[in-house]
Amino acid sequence: MKRGWENLLHGVVAGLVLPAVASVYPHTAAAQDRTGEVQNRLQEMQEEMRALQQELQQMKSREQAQEQHMQQMHADDDAKHKQLEEGVRTAEMAPSHRKRQNMVFFRGGFTDYVNDARGFESFTDTHDVDGFGQALGFPLQDSEDGWYVGGAIEHSLTDDLWGLFPSAEALGEISLEYKNFGSENAVLVVPSAECSLLTDATHFDALEADGGCLITGDQVQTMFTVSAAPKIKFMQGSKLRPWIIPAGLDFHVISPPSDAATYLDVGVQFAAGVEYEIIPGLKFGIDGRYHLVANISDTENNTAAVLRREIAEDPELAPLLSAGLANFGDTDKNFDFWTIGGYLGFSF
Q1: Three-state secondary-structure class, residue 322
Q2: Which one of 20-34, 108-122, 162-176, 320-334 scores highest in mean pLDDT?
Q3: Residue 277 has pLDDT above 90, yes or no
Q4: What are the residue boundaries of the structural domains of the chain, listed by start?
Q5: Exposure pattern of 86-116 as b/e (b: 16+ CB <10 Å)?
Q6: More confident of the two residues 211 and 36
Q7: CATH node for 101-347
């Protein structure tokens, strides 16, 4: 009996609950489906976030690597620059490895006038003592050869003649040169003229027994030359190097002055030579130069004609002229000269 009531109660409860559960279940299942979708979406978003984080991390790593690479490149550049500067300083401080193309050198040798010497001039021999110098025992003023000394500096301009001639070096030369053409015992015009003025001499006192106011002494002929010239040296890099000067400008100071008391002249020089580098920086060479002078100081005049006329008008001197004792030279002078010698140079 009791067993029957229990079964009946279970049946009633089941009849009441089962419909309710059946009505609620669809809603619960739908919620569960939506929850699953949300969870799936959240999982996808988490994966996307993780992918973005990984990409950002990779970008940061690449930037750091690039920055480190740039820093390394800058460090390498700085090291190379310092190494280059150190190499330049070392090269500059090592004279034996420094490229020496400029040179200062000292010259000396033999010189000679091309034509006759500067005799028969007022300041050289008083026009051979009015034409009677040799008859009175005075030697002919024929000093025309002697010696010279000088110094010069040359500066390198290009190693290949401005691209026209490989291994041909172009240089500029500035030179100072003193020449002594010798001396003779001659009548000195200035003190002789002073004596004549003081003694009121009015005649050819040279023919007096005591020689009158003929004051004699050594008359030295000299010349000082300043020149500027282009120079071309061949065989660049060789110890033995020939060279030429195609044409250079000369400025001359002659002494004693000419008949017109001028002492400045200009001209052009042509030269050739060869040099040998004995040891690095020390060179020895020989050169020959021809100096063509403009002869602006050449004061050609009619001194000889005037002396002949005046002597012919003097009854006492005319027989000497007719006997051929008087000697009249030429007043047309040529100051061209040449030099040949050696030099010792120091490169820098």
Answers
A1: helix
A2: 162-176
A3: yes
A4: 1-98, 101-347
A5: eeeeeeeeeeeeeeeeebebebbbebebeee
A6: 36
A7: 2.40.160.20
